[in-house]
Amino acid sequence: MQLRTKTLIALTLAHSLSVNAAGSTSTFELSLFYPQPYEYDNSINLSSEVVGFYRSIEVANDLFERKGVNLELKPTHVASVSSWTGTENVQTGRSDMDTGATAVETNVGDMAIGLFLPNGGTIGYGDHRKSSHYTWYPNNIAKIGLATNMTLGKGGDNSYPFVLSHEVLHSVGAMHDQAAAVRFNDDASGREDGYARTCDNGYGSLMTSVISTVPFAQMTISGASDCNTTPSANMVGFTNQYAPLAAEFEVGSRNNQTIRLTVTENINDQTFDFVAQRNDTSATEAMTLYIAGGAVYNGQNALAPQSIEFTSGQASSEIIKIDFNTVYGVFDQAHGEINSTYAVVVGQNEVQNKLVDVTAINTLWEPTITPDPDPETGTPNPDNGGGSSGGSTSLFSLLMLSCLYLVRRKINK
Ligand SMILES: [Zn+2]
């Protein structure tokens, strides 16, 4: 009887929370952990991984906003784990994040993401929640495994940058299909509509198990206006109900997205100049500047992480200068990909909130364009996907396509 009363109280609380939060946006703070040996591993570029983590958060927030999901993801921490060897995969590594000292070490934010090797074809592993967990473990930080060399995409118009949001929603209770979604409702008080369906565009929605086959610009969510012809699948409504509860996996918010990064195109010196500012100046600290873009398959799409030292009392860093030609190499690799070129600074206690798009600051570099023979199918355009890639580049591509169209019309006449 006591159990039953407790359940009822918890359910009433859950219900009132979701009603109170209707229309307002919930926030999940996400931490990122990686095996320390990755710092010396030539097959892993931490700039690609950290920028990819931020980029995946950006594309998730943009998708949620466009599709009516009242949820915002925020970065809150990036750190290495010294007990990991670098041989863990998304499944074994994720399990370790639930165990002993590693569980405590990775208990940061509402959800903690571990970067590991893929396990065969498995590139992500969420923390599968069920309805009863919200009653009995309401403040249990979710642990997620995510594959390396993936979050910036692998080239072409694919949805690898959405794998993070897919695993985040698994960790709220989402499933791939209807049969599994029924199992979420293990206490007969949960919903059964948190799963994927085929949308109006003919592609699977965000929770499909074959997410990487969905073109980046075609990604949507079941229950959104372009994916709601089967009333039983409604990830938008499901997420809006459970997100206010999952936002308390870590009680309260860290609100430590306080690093500001200023990037300047210094034409006199032919350098991009990076200056980071922090809030807490009480101690010496080494922060890290990560610059990457494009897609990971390019290889040369990222620069090595660079240390930024602060002395006690210092709020603004020294100027970090990087030659135009060095940064232009990344611009070249990113050109035509779904991602632009970005910079982000991460400290031990403070992080940057959003990426800075370095291509958008540039005024001198111009891409060498090889026009697509058929403007109808064109190269992937980040604006179609709602990404925030360099406006000048996109405009230039558009102009090129318009020119090509005029030429073709003339020839046809
Ligand atoms: Zn999945």
Automatic annotation (TrEMBL):
<protein>
    <submittedName>
        <fullName>GlyGly-CTERM sorting domain-containing protein</fullName>
    </submittedName>
</protein>
<dbReference type="InterPro" id="IPR020008">
    <property type="entry name" value="GlyGly_CTERM"/>
</dbReference>
<feature type="compositionally biased region" description="Low complexity">
    <location>
        <begin position="367"/>
        <end position="383"/>
    </location>
</feature>
<feature type="region of interest" description="Disordered">
    <location>
        <begin position="366"/>
        <end position="389"/>
    </location>
</feature>
<feature type="signal peptide">
    <location>
        <begin position="1"/>
        <end position="21"/>
    </location>
</feature>
<keyword id="KW-0732">Signal</keyword>
